[in-house]
Amino acid sequence: MSVRLSSALRTMLCCFVFLLPCSLWGQVADVPQRETFISWEDFATDYLLPREEEEVLLPADTRSGELDDLLALYEHPLPLNSVTRDELLVIPFLRPEQADSIVAYRGRLKGFHSLGELMLVRQLSYTERRWLSLFVFVDPPESLSPTWRERAFGGHHQVELRADFPLYRRAGFTVLKPDGTARNPQILYLGHRFGHTLRYRYAHRTGVNYGLTLQNDVGEPFGMRGNRPYDFTSFHLVLGRTGSRRQLFLGDYRAKWGQGLLIGRQFLSSPLLLLQQPSYPTARLSPHTGSDEVQFLRGAAVALRGRHWAWQVLVSHRQRDGRTEGDTVRSFLTSGLHRSLRELSRRNVVGVFTFGNRLEWHNPRGTFGLNAYAQHYDKFVLPRPKLYNLHSLRGRSAHGMSVDYGWAGRKWYLSGETAVDAQGHWATTHTAQMELHPAFRLTSQLRWLSAAFVSPLGETLQQGTHTQNEMGAFLGWQWEGLSRVEMRGFIDVFRFPQPTFRADTASQGFEVLWEAVYHQRDALLHTLRYHVKARQQNIPRHAPHLESQITHHLRWQLRSETSRRFWQLAMDVAAHHRQTHPHPTWGGMCSARVGRTFGRAVRLNAFGGVFLTENHATRLYAYLPQLPGVGAFPQFSGRGCALALVGRWEPSSHLRVHLRWGWTRYFDRATIGQDMQKIFSPQQHDLALALRYRF
């Protein structure tokens, strides 16, 4: 084991050293100094509202791939004095009129001199100005047109090495069971007890950027059993800026067209986000820069843009994980884990070819788009028939067409998309936003997704896991009538006409959220949030009879932040009620986060929390300080406590070192997890290290 470990470490260091001289060819540019009004941790806590994925039975850490786009924007902010309107709209919480206001202010005053001038952009709220500071920086005036050599090598380079060291041992690494009998060799982990990721990124202000990601998760074999030498390898190359006349994508990339009914993963799809970001049609192509091994395309994409038209075409071919029986695919796998012989046998067993085309007409007030896609599988897709998957994808191909629109008035905005699949099944979604008062905005959305509609790449604002079998109506509001108070909320009523995963007949439900933020002083904020969600599910042992299950969540938060220190106190209370049970179950959590900067080189962030829940239904979520490029909202259920400490040392503007320590202790159990992920202890420790070099 020690020989294998040392060999892996040597390989990691060799890769790190190899990439450095490759990226040093060319002019070295200065790294822009970051000026922000809020920390990434505070932004994540406020903006990334955790959603309960009721029909997705995956480990919590697999959902962290949703943060890849935001983390990429944070690591590579946009130049405020040269950014285009279309590039600004890549930031998910910005509306078109806000992007126009930023560009107009820049034109009137000949550029931004500091981020503080964002306070003078009238279309931005106090909260949005703070958020925006994480994703933009004030760049110097445009210089002469650079040469191709300067574009390819004279921008900003970044090399990052991240390693995870669990200080515990899972059952997958243990050959013998606790009773002394041997485990099935097919399920034993073949790799090391630590995981690591190596990333290289390059970006130039003219739109040239490329990068390479190499990753091995904990337990995955390194340099063996088909890994060359990493389990996951991702490369991307982009030529051209967003909104320019020509743009080319090679390698791994993501796409979102229209409202996402055919192609597109809704950006962190939460109903609350619709209040900050109206669901206007988009034609967004972006490089895949994260370590998510599922939600991306691999191939080439081209975007051409004229004065009033735009055209995008994409081609992709990649292998997917799945459970197969001969030439038949029973199900697709989305964990991206290949640790054992069994998991390796399901790796890259299905070839998927995708072709897509979008033609768009636009002017300053509106957009009209036509979309089409076709997808072909090299094996026959035939899931085992169950009540909830009778209308899932079957066969070797899937294709569809759609029409989307978006039109803006002085104080209103309308958008929508209507799609039809190969069998003639329909799906449609429409959104309207009205500004009834300069301080009051109203947002509504209607959606109808046919039970038999098939769209493997689609995702829109929805309650279900798949883009099908749902009818819903959404109404949200946002009020900023007082200088120090912001309030927002929504109600979403939905119905599933056909059976779902936990309901053997038609079911329905609703979701309500209300949130208020009080700015007591510039550095002191109070937040109060109430969230309730109700949904019908099977009565255990009495299906198909249904019962209503309602979950209440109340959160109070107090936060103070200055340039050098911050602290946050939070209290969470959850209650879960079942129609067939007379008494509700409860859960609660008290947590605190503190941060302090020492000098110019050292910063410490700490988290501590105590939780007590009666069952899994009253579980609670919290954002723990993480390493750069990692985002996670772990769930807490049972009785226990959690601690996390992250230290950052920045000896220069080029080098940054991060070290993280985490500890979780449960008081109501002797083991953690189950099956091969089981830890034979009531507590778990872990260490993580990240080295980043920018030049």
Write the layout of secondary structure elements.
Elements: H1 2-24, H2 40-47, H3 68-75, E1 78-79, H4 85-88, H5 96-108, H6 126-132, E2 136-137, H7 148-153, E3 156-166, E4 195-203, E5 209-216, E6 232-239, E7 246-258, H8 273-276, E8 282-287, E9 297-305, E10 309-320, E11 322-325, E12 328-332, H9 341-345, E13 350-363, E14 366-381, E15 395-408, E16 412-421, E17 426-437, E18 440-449, E19 470-482, E20 485-496, E21 507-521, E22 524-538, E23 546-561, E24 565-578, E25 585-598, E26 602-613, E27 620-621, E28 635-636, E29 639-649, E30 655-666, E31 683-694
Parallel strand pairs: 1-2, 12-14
Antiparallel strand pairs: 3-4, 3-31, 4-5, 5-6, 6-7, 7-8, 7-9, 9-10, 10-13, 11-12, 13-14, 14-15, 15-16, 16-17, 17-18, 18-19, 19-20, 20-21, 21-22, 22-23, 23-24, 24-25, 25-26, 26-29, 27-28, 29-30, 30-31
